């Protein structure tokens, strides 16, 4: 039987390609679909999801592969399918609409639009039959079609009102800032109080079920401890890091973290593995190791980086977006175990492994076992051997599908994690992996005018880059410079920041998510809250503050300060939703230190000095190294070597200490500034 083929067959997104043979007459978002809706005066059905989304797959099987449902949809609507990871601008706009209409949101997102793109009805997953208190998708289609014919004026009025509400929503958050709230230590103190109030002291983390990792929040707590020496934020951070690393959300055999826990105790994951989670979590475990020296944190960081290098690295050096939650349509099938299977595979090692990892006859999830271990349990050679053996056995199972598009912003986060690990652990391999992705993005995804595209796959760079692409990549490039001291990475980061200032800035302060020459949509999004990835505006502020220290250019700090001023009130009130802004604020208030080592970074005398710098977690420092007379880095200008030796310069508050060539003297200068 000949398969249907629709217009999605020409796309590169794995999510769109999953739907290329649905009987639904899908269009990708673009002029052709919108023109047809105008010409035929039909409402648009917009479906937004992503490749690793379990319920997206369910809705496809139940409704989009159903011939009868597809015929009705094709007759009365123009159907558009969007990969939210490729088009975060569309996802942001229409998710805001669904949240206005229903009070909540999620994926798959199902939204009905006028031909002008204005939303008037929406939801998330709709079943094929009425259940869970939801109408069937077919009933929804019939109801919307009837309303379009019989109550057109009401629909258009609703769409107009909703479009206006969407346009006003982001400025409303920013405008909530109270001019009486001054940027100072009180902001950080208030945020800490809020985090303590909502903290789950028993299980770690914030919130109940489902429970999400919050790497930006943990990063903020680590920074507070470094800044003030306060034990409370470090205790919260460690409790959360320990609980996540012990729980089922962490892959104890293959490394890496699942998207979130479906419960409140970190046991049962939603099994999809996202690049952005693993990038941010690997980085924060690196920092926790630098701060505490806890071997387990380094182990988790390295195992997570190994997972990314092994399973998410693409042939051209980038990093793929995700691994699916499902294997052959069954969620978690690759990862769950039964006790008889484990005992047969491990033999004499089984008893110890079963005891430590909670393996029982009855299991802990739907009759199966998700591996989790007691917090603080010791590792042994036998356990390490058992993990390797089980991992090899697991690799012989069917594996989840991979969404192998390379997303610029997510790769920027991953580059930063590899770079920080390279510097902290002294492992050049991690820097090489980060540099491979950076080179791909700069050479193939950045155009001749310095503008970024969002997505790279199959040799094609698609979709206009959004704010998070520029900001996250710039942050990754700064980290990569500080790990390798290859100056072209810092030059590229500065060029990206300049593009942000030229094309994304809001005259009242802050930054839009799309450029001034981006496709015109019903609203220009400006999402100041963090989600699974940092707010583009918050990461931009972070980058600009670092560049101000590295270059001495005050306009970078001015732009960052103007953006921070717009959100300072809401950031202190809702710290988990604005954690990256709090990280930027902490940097601004954290006694920033400029460290430069004049000399060849690969020479022994320079490496000894750099080892002192890298021996501790220094979130409020920027680091430069190179030959002063040949460098293009402003921080290195006019800072010569002394007596032919690598020489360190440490500056704070626009004042510099005496240059030193002895590692002990450098350590003393760095310690005295805390």
Strand content: 5-15%
Strand order of the biggest β-sheet? 1-3-2-4-5
Rg, Å, rounded? 26 Å
Q: Count helical runs.
A: 25
CATH topology of the largest domain: Glycosyltransferase
Number of domains: 4
Largest sheet: 5 strands, mixed
Cα-to-Cα separation, first versus last residue: 72 Å
Q: What is the typical, i.e. mean, pLDDT?
A: 94
Spans of 5+ residues with little confidence (pLDDT < 50)? none
Q: Could you tell me the number of beta strands?
A: 18
Describe this protein's structure.
The protein is an alpha+beta fold. It starts with 13 loop residues before the first helix and ends with a helix. Helices cover 50% and strands 11% of the residues. It is globular, with a radius of gyration of 26 Å. It folds into four domains: 7-174, Glutaredoxin (3-Layer(aba) Sandwich); 185-328 and 402-589, Glycosyltransferase, CATH 1.50.10.10; 335-395, no CATH class; 593-672. The strands form five sheets. The protein has a five-stranded mixed sheet with strand order 1-3-2-4-5, sandwiched between helices. The chain is built from 25 helices and 18 strands. Helix 9 (215-228) runs antiparallel to helix 10, helix 18 packs antiparallel against helix 19 and helix 20 (536-551) runs antiparallel to helix 21.
Please give the structural blueprint.
Layout: H1 14-18, E1 27-28, H2 31-40, E2 44-49, H3 54-64, H4 67-76, E3 78-83, H5 88-102, E4 109-113, E5 119-123, H6 137-150, H7 152-174, H8 185-198, H9 215-228, H10 231-246, E6 260-261, E7 269-270, E8 273-274, H11 275-292, H12 295-312, E9 320-323, E10 326-327, E11 330-331, H13 339-346, H14 350-357, H15 381-395, E12 402-407, H16 408-425, H17 428-445, E13 453-457, E14 460-464, H18 467-484, H19 487-503, H20 536-551, H21 554-565, H22 568-573, H23 579-589, E15 593-598, H24 604-614, E16 621-626, E17 647-652, E18 655-656, H25 663-672
Parallel strand pairs: 1-3, 2-3, 15-16
Antiparallel strand pairs: 2-4, 4-5, 6-7, 8-9, 9-12, 10-11, 12-13, 13-14, 15-17, 17-18
Helix pairs in contact: 4-6, 5-7, 9-10, 9-11, 9-23, 11-12, 11-16, 16-17, 16-18, 17-18, 18-19, 18-20, 20-21, 20-23, 24-25
